[in-house]
Specification:
By secondary structure, the chain is an alpha+beta fold. It has helices at residues 12-27, 33-47, 90-98, 151-168; strands spanning 53-61, 69-78, 84-86, 102-104, 122-129, 135-143. Strands 3-2-1-6-5-4 form a 6-stranded antiparallel beta sheet, sandwiched between helices. A hairpin with a 7-residue loop joins β1 and β2. α1 runs antiparallel to α2 (33-47) and α1 (12-27) packs parallel to α4. 36% of the residues are buried. Bound molecules: methionine sulfoxide. Methionine sulfoxide (SME) binds at residues 53, 81-82, 85, 90-93, 113-114, 116, 120, 123, 140, 142. Residues 53, 81-82, 85, 90-93, 113-114, 116, 120, 123, 140, 142 line the site of methionine sulfoxide (SME).
Length: 170
């Protein structure tokens, strides 16, 4: 059994360093994408305060005969969420289309935000880019508190995503 322990560092950067070590230990030696994604979401959801949803969306062929891709829901923690998101739509689709982390202090002020859980007030979405430069999907985290995420969260979440990608060897 993997034992998670409460984060003890006083500042966010230190807490993310502890969380990164825990995530590395949790995923080390396992490459299965779905299993690692599920444990990634569970670890973060129970370790960090003021979250109401976290999880992954994976890039899938939209199946419409052309080259369009879309995001499809993967493992997560929180309330049931919307399953398919087109590239360029919402915070997740924007992170996928631009391949840049989206830090949204107020989802109500974000044009095109897709509300899956009405409790969500702020959100951070990190694109998951494989070693070969292609996009695997996105990592999405929601909070019921406005402006819950800052630059420390951006750096910390991006570091966690790098550990996830490395463990999955994608
Ligand atoms: N709010 C996201 C949709 C996904 S849910 O938050 C789980 C968006 O605007 O892309």
């Amino acid at each position: 059994m993997f034992e998670t322990s409460a984060l003890t560092a006083a500042d966010k950067a230190g807490q993310y360093a502890e969380l990164a070590a825990q995530l590395h230990g949790l995923l080390h030696g396992e490459t299965d994408l779905v299993a690692n994604a599920a444990n990634f979401a569970a670890l973060v959801y129970h370790a960090l305060p003021e979250l109401n949803w976290c999880g992954l969306y994976f890039v899938r062929d939209a199946g419409n005969g052309d080259d369009d891709d879309e995001l499809v829901l993967g493992p997560f923690q929180g309330r049931p969420a919307c399953v398919r998101i087109a590239f360029g739509r919402g915070v997740c689709g924007t992170a996928a289309a631009t391949r840049t982390t989206q830090l949204v202090p107020d989802v109500h002020a974000y044009p095109g935000h897709i509300a899956c859980d009405s409790a969500s007030r702020s959100e951070i979405v990190v694109p998951l880019v494989r070693g070969d430069g292609t996009l695997l999907g996105v990592w999405d985290v929601d909070s019921p508190r406005a402006a819950r995420f800052d630059e420390d969260d951006r750096a910390g979440m991006q570091a966690l995503c790098a550990i996830f990608l490395q463990a999955c060897a994608v």
